[in-house]
């Protein structure tokens, strides 16, 4: 808004809110309605509800791809600043097309919902679990050290494999998942697309190797030493003489700070 913008009252009766109202109320808990004490509270609750719907997958209730990508962008930025490890897991339900073809799409939807609930029971509150698309899911795990990544992925794989999914009174199914993973590059401002591609490549390898297994990319050694951090974040005056000093008389320094002469 600019300084010259004018404000005027808006009456709810002049807005077409019936569709938005239905979407928000139908997606909430039974009996939970929008507040109606004041028009402002009602409208704010309606806007908040629509924002929440725009970030959720309607079938599983998980974060959707839009929300997932925004979380991934923040995590890449945090990684570049802090250097803490973070793991991205991409998961795909094995032979899902066969489930749809054999038992129907309703059974397929029930499988997706069941797997989503199982995955929710395997992640921490700080993790982000999303339905990436179709039968594929994604999990962003901040502060996940390389020594624990494979164990976490194996626990997820076992949990899905051991869960019986009842799709009708006479039919129960078991499914498995293939999992690919990649760590964010520490101290490097990479891109979300590159991170996804690296994890997706590992998922492809897991499926090519027979499915129902895990492939996690080896994390490169990106440890930054104390001396390197000092060079990256220390004051420039440590390495560069003031502007009024004849630089030809100042000895050079190597990466460790030792003078090397000319």
Automatic annotation (TrEMBL):
Enzyme class (EC, first level):
transferase
- Enzyme Commission number, as recorded: 2.7.7.65
- List, alphabetically, the PROSITE patterns matched: GGDEF
According to the entry, every stretch annotated as the GGDEF domain falls at: 84-219
Annotated signal peptide: none
Domain of life, per the record? Answer: Bacteria
Q: Which SUPFAM superfamilies does its entry note?
A: Nucleotide cyclase
For this UniProt entry, which segments traverse the membrane?
Answer: none
NCBIfam families noted in UniProt: GGDEF
Can you name this protein?
diguanylate cyclase
Q: Which organism is it from?
A: Comamonas endophytica
